[in-house]
Sequence to fold (178 residues):
Amino acid sequence: MRRTPVTVPYGYEPPAEQNKGTLIFYDAFEDITVQGLLKAEKTAEERAFSRLVLYPLHEETAKRMLKAAVSAYYKRERQLESWKEEHRSSAVIEGFEAKRKKYTPMDTALRHLTEKYPAPHFLYLTPDMANLFASYASFKDWIVRLRLILSERPERVHPLLEEYQNRWDVSGEPRAGE
Fold:
């Protein structure tokens, strides 16, 4: 294979990568509307993330975490696939829980996602899911490794979310420093 020399002007620096990091939408996707998905995708575009990852929870995981029954995993996954095709979205649907076919603790899921996708990592959560995440013992370990973006302003904020309010913000609202 022949090499061709390339010349560049003195002081040339390659352009900085514009898209960085991963926005992970962690939810059961039972009650998420098309507008909710479009809002998440818009947030990923506005903040220049390299990818949006949709992480649907297995029904066993949702049953333990949310204390509510949800439809079968494959049905929710099909709805996400059809949304993706309909809106020509570049979002990735993570199938980790489909392979496991059982309850997956949030720690295990986050460890898998942070190893698989490029940093920095941002979790896109509904207010209820954010409060639930803050109630876990491992929250303090995870909040220093990733940031949260909430889909809307929560009516009630968990005390740990309040304590770490500099590590999260709300989608569509101006961020600190802007």
Notes: Helices lie at 34-46, 59-66, 73-86, 96-100, 106-116, 127-134, 139-143, 159-163. Residues 73-86 form the longest helix (14 residues). Strands lie at 22-27, 51-56, 92-93, 121-125, 147-150, 168-170. The first strand starts at residue 22 and ends at 27.
